[in-house]
Structures are given as structure tokens and as C-alpha cells.
Amino acid sequence: MTGLSIMLVDDHPVVREGYRRLLERNPGFHVVCEAETAADAYRLYREHDPDLVVMDLSLPGAGGLEAVRHIRQWDKAARILVFTMHEGAAFALKAFEAGAAGYVTKSSAPQELVRAVEVVGGGGRALSDDVAQEIAAERLSGRRSPLDDLGPRETEILRMLASGLAAEQIAEQLHLSLKTVQNYHYQIKSKLEARTDAHLVWLAVGFGLVRMTGGEVGR
């Protein structure tokens, strides 16, 4: 097979089908595998060795940040384009810190995703206009997000905690010891100066890591 081989990572089958159709309308783009979870993404990447990964960040359990970090640990040359609903500058910067080469929001025009696939697939870096403007505005204003003090794994654990996962569940999904997760939990609270776990959830919502849906926290 010639052209660009692509893995899609999103937990909604209908959404993946839409992306597949959009991308495969372009000559040379071939979707070779699809994953619903971070664990599936890592396993299928090793099996299929795609040229490019199109990765959502909102996945069940361990999220896209962890998937990006894990894949890049195994393959330093992996090319990963994040395609997500998260429009905040802080989240985009965390994705790049984890190893992504591109970041496009789902509110972007379809052709912006296609263009980003071409750029990242060719070895470049891509950023959708809305997020580029967010990052520029933040930098020009001199504002600094508290998330800047957290690494990608700490950010992911904060998201998982705020989503209602217990420390035991996080340890199992990230293949860490319970003590390690508890240490991360303490470090995150300390860095963010959070007084309680409820305060942590409130901060995570404010950062855009999780959403409030019907009065409850959701992905």
C-alpha cells in the first residue's frame, strides 16, 4: 500500500466512520485501524505501525494525553495529530508536551483536519486557527495557567480524578502502583494549591479537562 496509513482513535464508532469517509476521499489516505481506548490505541499502533495517528483526547478511562505519551515512549518518531473538542490553550500545550505534532479542534472546518493530516503526515506541525489564537492571546496577555506546573501524566491523572475514578481504578488503567497514584494525587493538590478533592474537581472543570453535564461531571 502506498500513501499515508492512518489510525483513528475515538470512542464513538459513528464519529470514526465520519472521519474515515472524510479522510479516504483524499487520494493516498488509508485508515488501517481504529481504536476506542488508550490501551487499544497503543496495542494497535504496535500491530499496524501507521504513518499517522488521529487521536481524540476524551476517551474512557485513560485519556488521549496518556495514549499520546505512551505511544511516543515506544516510538519516538510517531506522528500524532490530536483532534478534539478541547479548545483551551493549556490543554493544547499539554498535548504537544506529551508528544503530539498537531492539534485541531472538532469545531474546525473539515478541510482544516485534512490539511493538518497532510502537514503532520509530512513531518510538520499543525495547529487549528482557533487554538492558535487562544495560545497567542494567553501569551500576549502574560496570563499563566496553573496547568503549566503539571506534566502530561499529572494532567491526565487530574482529569481521571475529576471524572470520578478512584485511585485504585487509575492505578489499574495506567499500570501504576496505588502508592504512586496517591503520590501523584498529593503532588497535584500541592501544585494547584487545592484545599480538597472537591476543589480539585472545580479546578479541572475550570481548566476544561472535564465538563459539567446535567449537574454532574462528565468527560
UniProtKB/TrEMBL annotation:
Residues 143-208 form the HTH luxR-type domain. One of its GO terms (molecular function) is DNA binding. The keyword Protein biosynthesis does not apply. It holds the Pfam family Response_reg. The modification 4-aspartylphosphate is found at residue 56. Residues 5-121 form the Response regulatory domain. The keyword Aminoacyl-tRNA synthetase does not apply. One of its GO terms (biological process) is phosphorelay signal transduction system. Keywords: DNA-binding, Phosphoprotein. This is Response regulator UvrY. It comes from Hartmannibacter diazotrophicus. The gene is uvrY_2.
